[in-house]
Amino acid sequence: MYDLHSLGWHSFQQLCLTITREILGQTVESFLDTADGGRDGAFSGTWKPISAEALTGRFVVQCKFTGSRQRNLKAEDLRDEVKKAKRLVKLGRCDSYFLMTNAGVSGIAAEAIEALFSSAGVKHVAIFGSTWICDQIRENKRLRMMVPRVYGLGDLSQILDERVYLQAKALLSTLREDLSKVVITSAYRRAAEALDRHGFVLLIGEPAAGKTTIASMLAMAALDQWGCPTLKLDDPRKVVEHWNPDEPSQFSWVDDAFGVMQYESFLVHGWNHTLPQVKAMLRKGAKIVMTSRDYIYRRARNDLKEGAFPLLRESQVVIDVRDLTPDERQQILYNHIKLGRQTREFRAEIKPHLGFIAAHLRFIPETARRLADPLFTASLELDRHDLNQFVEKQEQLMQEVLGGLDEHSKAALALIYMRKGILESPIELQKSEREAIERLGSNLGGCITALDCLNGSLVQHAQTEGAALWRFKHPTVGDAFAVLLLKNPESLGIYVHGSSVESLMGQITCGDVDLEHAVILPKALFAPVLRRLGEFSSTTYKSSVLSSWDRRSRLDRFLTTRCSKDFLAAYIKLYPDVLERASDPDLMLNASSNVDLAVRLHEFGLLPEKHRQEFVSKIRSFTFDGDDLYAIESDDIQSVFAPSELGEFRERWRDELLPKLPRIRRNWQSNHDSQQQPEDHMQPLIDSLRALKSEFAAEPSVLHKIDEEIALAEQWISETGAEGGPPQSRPPRVFGDVDGHDQPVVQERSIFDDIDDSVTPWNHLTETADAGNNGNPSRVKMEEVTPLRVRRL
After folding, report:
1. Residue 177 — very low, low, confident or very high, per pLDDT cuts 50/70/90?
2. Fewest CB within a 10 Å sphere: which of 19, 270, 678, 697?
3. What pTM, to 2 d.p., does this model score?
């Protein structure tokens, strides 16, 4: 059942009119919201309901809305409507009366209502209650697609998400070529097992190691085995926004969860905000797959509150995808070369070296993909030395490939890079972007032609988010392009002037702040960046308040994590109001962007004493009022205190905070929102209390008092959770046992023996000549070619 009462009367009326068109088969005339004369909609002529008898005459559609979830419609609720219907009958405008309501309608009530309208002269009466309307929404995909986005309220999020599911399917369809070459690896099997057991898996590995491929395989399995709604999302806010508690089998796929090419601190803070909701999603049966580059995850772990999400500490769900067995390496290389774009002559020439390539210590799936693409092998000599260099120096070779492109191709890649990896199609250039590609010696027509030529090799044309777009075939293309930008100061200037502010904030650092794979700008380019930051305004939210908050938060994150001391000094001089923002921290200190900014400014000696004292005063207030105790456990926040202030602050823990702990705990309990899990609500307080214990580790009496409060908080969690009753039991959905050959099959022939043959159908088993048997045919043993078996449970 959908919460139709949360729609509001106007949205419900629009929904009803849509149902008459999409379900009942007629387009009706709608009237003004006021003075409608007892008619929300009308139709004149022959009504031909789907799978029902035809009706002729004048028709009236009336919607009755209630804001109460439990309201049932009664005959006496319609006395006024019956009077209006009687008037319409006299005027010859009402032969049939269709009543649609979000209230419940019992069989007895329906009979009484029909009798009332019949006594008013209506020839035919049809009543559609909340149960019928919910059935139509649930059973008709087209109806869900046709309902406007405004209906994505409450449990009607399924309507909104239908579009997201279609986007995910479109995305998976673009991976069809890659999926045809996949090999079931031990990493995939462990990932599937983690999903079965925990509902969550984080795939980590170096660039191009196969993380996205494994995630796409898991998503495809979810679609195939369960018809599981699949969401392809890109930030933590959307994971929660698109979660539907009444669709427990939802599958969320978050690629590059903590940043695409560099670590993005705002994403990690977003996850810290949403981890409690993620835990609730997993308890309800949702499944979540996240991927991250290994070097980004190492940085993210410093900021992730793993205590709030213990699964992140378990090796069962954090899986390094680089661990490939020799057999897996060979199969991956075979599939890519066999099904790739290379000629038969190339495959025959490289065939003797494939065993060496698969055994190379630096072999990754991306190595196989590039060898299968003529773009990357045009100047490659197929001997042991050059092939070793090809595998060993993959990054350098990619840079050489990009550096050898024509001006139009470079400009096309620059457009994608300037749009942070997503270039909408058809392409519409901003003035600054047009100037940028002209300085590179290109134009819009040249870029469009180049993109068509590069499609499938360096770039990819895909459908997502309801639109067509161009993007890099793999993020490593963007990495290599960033290196090329660093080598040419003129290119950096073009990038700064031509990119959107959002792209700049996501890809550059102003000075070297030790951020891997970022584009480091020299001091000469600080001035245009400062000017561009002044132009930044968030468009993420329609609400001006939320938009202002988002702008402030993203600016704070950029200044904190991507700016050197010299740049920050210049920024403060140009925009001094940033000091006021830094000295006024918000509640939820562990996730407040201005707290991190204040810490960073103080670290560089750029936070004036006046503002430092204001910051410290606010932190004291939060702590001793009991609103937010995070400062107790945060060394960063305490670093802003002067030594004498910090000593006094800690002394007050004993004198003022400890006696207040019972009241603070009770206040937290009374402020609990029933929509939030009790454990998630109380966890920040419990974490702070445990940090407080370390301060008094040598005082058993104090530790006893703190432990009492922790025990009472945990008891309240248990009792409050029990009041809500046990979660609805559902049979678990698991991928099942994924069988592969755990032990390699002993083969006399090399897997690459037929690499230069014509491609044969997958289901075609033939007799083949055994080179070691004087050319006499011998039948292939069936146990050597047994296909992958997936047992569904």
Report:
1. low
2. 697
3. 0.53
